[in-house]
Fold this sequence. Notes:
Elements: E1 6-15, E2 23-28, E3 51-53, H1 55-63, H2 66-69, E4 74-78, H3 86-98, E5 102-107, H4 116-127, E6 131-135, H5 141-148, H6 153-164, E7 168-175, H7 183-194, E8 199-206, H8 212-217, H9 232-242
Parallel strand pairs: 2-4, 4-5, 5-6, 6-7, 7-8
Antiparallel strand pairs: 1-2, 1-3
The protein binds iron/sulfur cluster (SF4).
Amino acid sequence: MEDIRGKVNKLETFGLVDGPGVRYVIFVQGCAMRCQYCHNPDTWEGTEGIMEFTPAQMYEKAKRYKTYWKDNGGITISGGEALLQLDFVREVFKLAKKDGVHTALDTSGNPFRNEPKYLEKFKELMDVTDLFILDIKEMDEERHKKLTGCTNKNILELAKFLSENNKKMWIRHVLVPGITDQQDDLEQLRDFLAELKTIQRVEILPYHTLGVVKWKTLGKEYPLDGVRTPTDEEVKRAEEILNVRQYPDCPYNND
Ligand code: SF4
């Protein structure tokens, strides 16, 4: 395992949104999706602007912040796409679990394959991951392909697989007016989520344009130019359709 080197785009020492409590968040480099609203296009390529760490170096760096984590915080690995560096993530999480640290994986699910060889490796990762934070960007296959350049079949399979294996999940859906807020799609998503047994939280993330400047810096044309952010009412409507409050860990349950 000594030759595993994680490619990392950036580190956040005091994350408050990517998992419970205070998190040390590791944003790894590389993603095969091309979401039109991506606010981290600088993470796409496998080599640009990266730091490299062995799993032990990464964990030692994170552990310096352990006092902030208290009972429920810990380490989150996000991206880019964390599953593209499955071996690195697994080894960092193994070290964390030895110390009783909570581990969360934030993923688009795109690399997941429902195939025996892949599942064998994935199960080892699952064993040391306390929480999966999974983005479901679109239920409709064609709209998903248009939005991300990729199928959603394996992503939905991952959600089912995690549920069958009793792994806790937070589900996130980015709400883009006129693109990911269609009634039929949201209803399909609600019905799909209702079949899963281990969801703790469902969050609507309002689309924002903070990443546009990165597209421009990288010389890329921003595909959603002119698309506005959703209103509070639109976000509330989507939350109602998805029944977000029915999930036990939903942040709005104590309003
Ligand atoms: S999966 Fe995430 S990192 Fe990859 S393109 Fe989509 S939003 Fe960007």
